[in-house]
Amino acid sequence: MSTLKDKLIKQLNIPRINLSRYKLTPSLIKLIPLNLVEKYKVIPVSKIGNTLTVAMADPLNIFILEDLKIATNCEIKGVLASPQDLSAAIEKYYKKKEKKLEEVIEEAKEDIEIIEETKEEAIGEIAESSRQVPIIKMVNLIIAEALRSRASDIHLEPYEDNLRVRYRIDGRLQEKIKIPKQAQAAILARLKIMSNLDITEHRLPQDGRFSIRSEGRDIDFRVSFLPISFGEKVVLRVLDKQSISVGLQNLGFSEYSFRRFEKGIAAPYGIILITGPTGSGKSTTLYSILNRLNTANRNIITIEDPVEYQLEGITQIPTQPDIGFDFAQGLRSLLRQNPDVIMIGEIRDQETADVAIKASLTGQLIFSTLHTNDAASAFTRLIDMGIEPFLLSSAVVMVVAQRLTRKICPYCKEEVKIPSSVLKRVGLEGYSGKFYQGKGCPRCNNTGYYGRSAVLEVLLVDEKIKEMVIRGSSADKIKEYAISRGMRTLLEDGLEKVKQGETTLEEVIRVAGD
Description:
Elements: H1 4-11, H2 26-29, H3 34-40, E1 42-48, E2 51-56, H4 62-72, E3 75-80, H5 83-93, H6 101-107, E4 112-114, H7 125-130, H8 133-148, E5 151-158, E6 162-169, E7 172-180, H9 184-194, E8 206-214, E9 217-228, E10 231-240, H10 242-245, H11 255-265, E11 270-275, H12 282-293, E12 300-304, E13 315-318, H13 327-334, E14 341-344, H14 350-360, E15 365-370, H15 377-385, H16 389-395, E16 396-408, E17 413-416, H17 420-425, E18 435-438, E19 449-460, H18 463-471, H19 475-484, H20 490-499, H21 505-512
Parallel strand pairs: 2-3, 11-15, 11-16, 12-13, 12-14, 14-15
Antiparallel strand pairs: 1-2, 4-8, 5-6, 5-10, 6-7, 8-9, 9-10, 16-19, 17-18
C-alpha cells in the first residue's frame, strides 16, 4: 500500500533514479562534504548552472534541502533513490580506500620551494624512489594543502593498508587523505631527507626541521619521527613566523585583559609566567612578547627545547639533554652573557626554577611557561618544587593562564537561543543579549568555527599577594583575592567573548569551564 509520502512524490512529479547507472565525476562529489553525505544519506547527481540535483531517500525534506543549499551555495533539486542505492553509492564514491597515487598527484596544486635540504647523496632503493618527481610532488601537495587549510600540525600515520594524513585545524584533527601503502616508505624517506635525518634509522625516534618558501613567506617545520607497529609516525609542526609578527594586540586578547597584560610585561625585572596545557598558545604569546621587546638596546637570549621560531636579533640556544646541557645548565651559562631579557622554554624542575628566580632578583626580566590549571596555582606548583616562598614572592611579577577558543565562522554565523538554565549555571542569568553559533559551511569544513583567539586570566602580583605567598596561603585564597582586585578568570574572559559574538558558550565551557 502506497504511503502518503509516495503519493506526494508522485503528484509532484519527482523522478526516481537508479544510481547504479550514473558515473559521478570527482568534481561533482566534492560539492557535498562527507559529513553531510553520511548525515543525510544524499548523493549529488548533476549540476547545471547553479542548480544541483541530489539523489535522496526523502526529497520532500525541506530541512535537508535548506542545509544543502547553504553548504553548496546552489539551488537544490531533489530526486528519489532507494536507501540501498544511496548506501552503495556513498560506499563507492566517498568511502573507497584511497585514490590512486597518480590521481592525487595529477590533481595537486602546490607552489612551494624547499629552502633547506641535505646535499648528502642518499643511497639505496628507497632513497632513490624518494627523489622521484611523483613522490616529491606528493609531499609538496601534503604541505601546500596544510598551509591552505590553516593547519598547525600535519600527522602522517602508517596503518596496515595505507598511510593516513590528518591536519590539526583550529585545535582539532581532521582526516584529509589516505595514501597507498606502497608509497609510504618513499614519502617518509623524502621527509627525512628534507629534515636532514638518517633515512636508514627506523628503530629510534628522530627529530629534525626544514624550511619552505610559499607565496612569498618563509615557513619552518619541526619534524618528529616515532617508530610504531606499521612503520614510523610523523608529526610536522607548522611554524609560521607571520603568526608571531602580527603583534600582541592582534592575538585576540580581550581589551580588558590585554591592558592588564601590558602592565605586567612593562616590568623592568622579575619573572613572568605563562601557564596552560599543551596547545594553548603559550609559545606564540611568548615569541610575540620577545618581538615587541626586540630592540637594539636589549640583549635577549632564549633557551628552548627545541627552538621553535628562529628570530633575527635574538640569541637562541637549544638544549641538548643527551650531553647534559639542560635548561638549568644552559641558564647558568647564558647568565654570563650579560642578558637583559631571558626566555626559558619551560620550568620543569626545581633546579631550573631556582636559577631563574635568583637571576630575576639580580635585574633580568625572565619569561617562561609552566603547566598549571590556573594562574594562582603557579605559586603552589613552584613551592611544591622546593622554591622558598620568600624568593618566589619577590621574583614573580605576573602569572597569566591562557587557553585558545575557536572563533565562530563569519561565513555561516547565525543567532541561537540558549536555555535559561544554562545561562544561570555560567553566571549569565538575566543577560538579554544575543548568542551566536556557526551553522557549518564549506569554508569552515562544516565545523562552524574558523580561527582561534586567546582567553586570559591575568594575575598581577601586589604586596598583599606577596604576603599571602610567604604565609603559604592556598591557591584558592590567592585567586579569590586576585578576583577582588580586578582579575578576570578564564571563564569570565571567555564569556565576554561570547557576549561579543566572537565564540560560542559551548566552546568557552569546553576550554575554560569548571
